[in-house]
Design goal:
- The protein is of the alpha/beta class.
- 51% of the residues lie in helices and 14% in strands.
- The protein has helices at 2-9, 13-19, 21-34, 36-39, 48-55, 62-71, 90-95, 105-119, 122-128, 135-138, 142-148, 150-174, 192-200, 212-224, 260-273, 295-308, 316-326, and strands spanning 46-47, 75-78, 85-88, 182-186, 205-210, 231-235, 248-252, 279-284, 330-335, 341-346.
- One of its GO terms (biological process) is methylation.
- The active site is at 256 (proton acceptor).
- Residues 16-96 form the O-methyltransferase dimerisation domain.
- GO terms for molecular function: O-methyltransferase activity; protein dimerization activity.
């Protein structure tokens, strides 16, 4: 009797929702790639036929596609089928219009073009421990492949900006930068972290560092934000070069790209570049210490397996142990946007 009651009370719904979650993900990814939300920008409402014409869609699935986006919460709709008009939600209007500086679709585009097909080989990655990205087909690592193709590099930089901007804005608001006068961002990509900190803290001179092929992208972004006086760029290969001296060293989604020896090397370089009282800040999708709650952080660590094999995400407790081993005296963790946090080690 108890078994029968348990069978009645439990449901396979969550199992089926998870098993088919890629239906929703790919529908959304395709909507961004095809430009649905940009087409509807400016708070305009368009009919299904108008959207079909604008995007050159086949008529078979126009309403299934658009109504699925309504059901998923990414579009609003008035009317039904031929009488319907569609419009962006407040979120898609702000964050998924390619013509707005708040656009975060760069990461979504990269997820569609790179990550979605690579994740099909997760089972092989779990069995072999080997990356499943471009290296399988070209023999070159992810970064070698990206830096060899300017368009792919730009897409990657835009993706990193898209996924990180909210976190960097939150960091600038939540961390007390008033005690510091200089900041150096390691692997700063387009310079978004430096720009957001500088924008809110005019007392800080910021330097964003990356490889030479990224510098022009960063300079253009910094200039477009009107921050060229306060934010400078520098060419740094963080494996070969020492870090510039600064009161604050930051790394946004850098440490998780590497194995433990390279993580420790980067932490040591940061320690050596900081003065007494200085701070190392890393922004990551920190896994909760009990490894139960931050599903995104755990899935991101699987993504590091897909991308690099030996790389992995980590907990705040891991970060504290590593930094104290190098010599840092104390560690704080500040929640940022969504599943991400800032882990701060003080020298």
């Amino acid at each position: 009797m108890n078994t029968t009651l348990e069978q009645i009370q439990i449901s396979p719904a969550r199992i089926m929702e998870t098993a088919t979650a890629f239906f929703a993900s790919k529908t959304f990814l395709s909507a961004v790639k095809l430009g649905v939300f940009t087409t509807l920008s400016g708070n305009q409402s368009l009919s299904g036929k108008a959207i079909q014409k604008a995007l050159n869609l086949h008529d078979r699935a126009v309403y299934d596609f658009l109504d699925a986006l309504v059901a998923l919460g990414f579009l609003n709709r008035d009317g039904l089928l031929e009488t319907a008009t569609y419009s962006n939600t407040p979120e898609t209007e702000v964050f998924l219009d390619k013509n707005k500086p708040s656009y975060i679709g760069g990461f979504v585009e990269m997820a569609n073009d790179r990550l979605y097909p690579f994740w099909a080989d997760l089972d092989e990655a779990l069995l072999t421990g080997k990356p499943q990205n471009e290296i399988k087909h070209t023999g070159r690592s992810m970064f070698e492949e990206l830096y060899a193709k300017p368009e792919r590099l730009k897409q990657f930089i835009n993706a990193m900006s898209g996924i990180s901007t909210g976190n960097f804005m939150a960091l600038a608001q939540k961390f007390d930068f008033s005690r510091y006068s200089s900041l150096c961002d390691i692997g700063g990509a387009a310079g978004v972290l430096s720009v957001e900190v500088a924008r809110q803290h005019p007392n800080i001179a910021c330097t964003t560092t990356d490889l030479p092929s990224v510098e022009s992208i960063a300079r253009d972004y910094i200039a477009a934000q009107g921050m060229s006086e306060q934010v400078k760029t520098a060419n740094i290969d963080f494996f070969k070069d020492e870090f510039p001296k600064a009161d604050v060293i930051t790394m946004g989604m850098i440490l998780h790209d590497w194995d433990l020896p390279n993580k420790m090397m980067l932490i040591q370089k940061a320690y050596d570049a900081l003065p007494e009282g200085g701070a190392l800040i890393v922004v990551e999708a920190l896994i909760d210490d009990d490894r139960r709650k931050n599903a995104f952080g755990l899935l991101m660590s699987l993504n590091m397996l897909i991308e690099f094999g030996v790389a992995f995400d980590f907990t705040g407790a891991d970060f504290e142990r590593w930094t104290k081993e190098v010599g840092f005296r104390s560690v704080d963790v500040i929640p940022l946007a969504g599943p991400s946090s800032a882990a701060i080690a003080y020298k």
